[in-house]
Amino acid sequence: MSSNYRDESHYSTSSEEEETSLPSSSTEEDAQVTQDVLSSPFSDYLIQSFLGEGTFGEVVKCVKSATQETVAVKILNNNNSADDVQNEVAILRKLQAFDSDKFNFIRFIDMFNIGEHACLEFEMLDMNLWDFLEKTPSHVLSVNEIRPILHQMATALQLLRSLGIVHTDLKPDNIMLVDSVNKPFKIKIIDFGLARYVSQITSGSYMQSRHYRYLTS
Ligand code: PIT
């Protein structure tokens, strides 16, 4: 997986630098075993696999050398304006003051920069609700499964409301199961990339992803 990730990536990681200096005959094979690393001033992050991508950039699963913890790192691409990154980080930092397990949102750990890419480090979660439904033979959830999910979402939204934050992009892809095997239907809300303070929202702002807007209008 990490070699796929490297093939498509435009980020300068340590192993990419090594690769360029390898003799060409052995480059292919060596590239398979060389591990990609994101280096922050405080730790190396050894990339294990690719988790997902969007217009924002991509998310990779890493082992953080400093703690041996497995974390998810969202690497933002250059399409994000500095304002958007600052806005997301400001909201994530605000949420850091609250218990993410109690209020059901992803735990933001830290941020660092790799060149011009902002990297946001989060706790590792299992899979999003969309992928979970795809994996479920019936492709549906029962009311007994939906109820605890909605209860947890209501708790998260109540906190966001009390802080004057609107997520604006709630959809099955942004609701993650924490551990589908050991903690069935324990969920957390992710992706505050489009979240806004109520005070930032002006009349006419788009408040929902286009896909869901067309479905419901
Ligand atoms: C994954 C797996 C995982 C975490 C994430 C994605 C996190 C995504 C995310 C993105 C954001 C944000 C918070 C969390 O504000 O363990 O596939 O923009």
Question: Which key phrases capture this entry?
Answer:
36% helix; 29% strand; three-stranded antiparallel beta sheet; Transferase(Phosphotransferase), domain 1; Phosphorylase Kinase, domain 1; alpha+beta; single chain; six-stranded antiparallel beta sheet; binds piceatannol; 217 residues; 2 domains; disordered N terminus
How would you explain this protein's 3D organization?
With 217 residues, the protein is α+β, with helices and mostly antiparallel strands. It folds into 2 domains: 9-123, Phosphorylase Kinase, domain 1, CATH 3.30.200; 127-212, Transferase(Phosphotransferase) domain 1 (Transferase(Phosphotransferase), domain 1, Orthogonal Bundle). Helices cover 36% and strands 29% of the residues. It is built from 8 helices and 11 strands. It has helices at 2-8, 14-21, 24-33, 82-95, 100-103, 129-135, 143-163, 210-216, and strands at residues 37-39, 44-54, 57-64, 69-76, 108-114, 117-123, 127-128, 165-166, 175-179, 183-189, 196-197. The strands form 3 sheets. A 6-stranded antiparallel beta sheet has the order 1-2-3-4-6-5. Strands 7-9-10 form a 3-stranded antiparallel beta sheet. Strands 8-11 form a two-stranded antiparallel ribbon. β3 (57-64) and β4 (69-76) form a beta hairpin. The longest helix is centred in the C-terminal third of the chain and has 21 residues, at 143-163. The protein is globular. The chain starts with a helix and ends with a helix. It binds piceatannol (PIT). Piceatannol binds next to β2, β4 and α4.
